[in-house]
Fold this protein.
Amino acid sequence: MCVNSASTVLRGAGDNGGRRVIRHRFVVAACGKASRAQVHVNRTHRPIEKTGLLDNTIQCMVWERSAATTADSVLGFQRLIRNDSGLNKYHYVLIDTPPNIGTMVHNALMISHYVIVPIPTSDQFALDGLATFLKLIQTIRSQNDKLKLLGILLTKFDDRADVYVKNREKMIQFFHSKKIFVFDTTIRFTVDIDKAHIKRKTIFGFDTDSQGAADYKNLAREVVTIVRNAAQNQK
């Protein structure tokens, strides 16, 4: 199972006294190997309360190859969700995409409102492909004017190593100089995430009190706050 393209749909995450604050929002975690920590499930795994999980299968990879030379290479997801009334019961739909600029990423960007770009603090070379990806976002905006870069998520951070600390500081300075938002939350390196993968569980199902779970909870709060504020400002 390839979990990079797994989708998560969250129901009730934005409730306010039982009242829906916003309608569903598509958020794509693009080109992010590190975001695997959030979802690693199989078809027998019980989802977290108020969420639904659609895990990837080999058929998704077959579809990606066959769709590459058709209109579905860009519009496939858009066609599938056009008449899907079931989406209305969800507040957020998270699409975790492969670490490449291929059919799956193009499709996800075409239907998304926001993009989160995970970048590991251990690899400054990850910045090399960022300019290309930002150009892709700009191109997609000509067809999806709702698409926005929500922010950069720094991952795989280990504050015990000076190189990680220095890299993180340099990355934050670089993005701030480009006026690109960086999430306050940094996902720290933790062996618990690897252990959760081995057990085929989410980090929350493995150990809800772990460091990894705490980081992803903080990220979720940030995302919900930013998206909710943006929705309120549009009123």
